[in-house]
Each structure stands twice: as structure tokens, then as C-alpha cells.
Amino acid sequence: EAVSNPKIIVKFFHPLSSWTWFVVEGDKQEDGDWLFFGLVDGFEKELGYFTLKQLEEVEVKGLKIERDMYFGEHRINEFRGTKIEITIQAKEWNQLLAIAKESGEAKEGEKDNEKLIKDEVEKAIEAYIKR
What Pfam family is a match, any one (predicted)? Predict the structure, then answer.
């Protein structure tokens, strides 16, 4: 379901840094882990996927990432006006291209079509953030 300004459902943070993870959606995986999508505010702000297991594995000076139990109701567009960097990992990019090729939008090995698809994906993400 398309939501123009999704609610942040959970916030994670590390007490010794400014790193923060704002989750807007999550999906329980077959192995019991959770796959989240949200805004990661670290070295820069970017939207992306991360798992609960990845968060649980981080430990700095004996401290782990924590859930902010007092985080109120917030929406993602509260971050409008800040620079958000979006990185599509190689695996996800290959999946997007495979879908485009299956639908006939791109043909194997045609770089112009792949660039066009990449540009369209970037435009769609930018439009999503600006809503």
C-alpha cells in the first residue's frame, strides 16, 4: 500500500553515537528475524533495509543498540528539508533490473535501458520522500 507520509513505528539508537534507525515498515522473516525498511541517520541520512539481527550484533564499548521506549508518534516527512541519500545495494539493483527485463522494460545488456530504469527508480524515490 502506498503511503505518502508513513508513520515511524519504532526508533532504535546507539547511546554512544548519533546513529538512529527510524522504522516505517517491518516484515517477519521465515528464520524469525525481522526485515525493516526505514530512515537510517548515521554518517548521512538514507532510506534502506536492515534487519533486527544486524542491529543486535552492533556492540560498542559494551553497549548495544537500544529501542527508544519513549519515542512519540512521528512521521517520516518530519525529516523533509534534510539531505537524504538513498543507496540501492547491488543485490536489490539486480532484482529491480530482473523485474524490468521480465516485463520487457529492459533487454539484456542494453545499458541505455538500464540507465533509463535507474533514472526512473531514482525519480520515484525522490517523489516518495517529498510527499
Answer: DUF2958
Task: Please name the residues in contact with 57: beta carbons below 8 A apart, sequence gap of 6 or more.
Answer: none
pLDDT tens for each residue of 18-66 = 899 999 999 999 999 999 999 888 888 888 899 999 999 999 889 999 9
Strands annotated E in 1-129: 7-8, 10-13, 20-28, 34-41, 45-51, 59-60, 63-64, 66-67, 74-75
Q: Regarding beta strands 63-64 and 45-51, do their DSSP bridges make them parallel or antiparallel, or are they unpaired?
A: unpaired
Q: Would you state the cell numbers that stand for residue 46, as one nine-digit string? A: 538514507
Domain ranges of the chain: 1-86, 88-131
SS3 100: helix
- Residue pair 80/130 in contact (Cβ under 8 Å)? The answer is yes
0.70 exceeded by pTM:
no
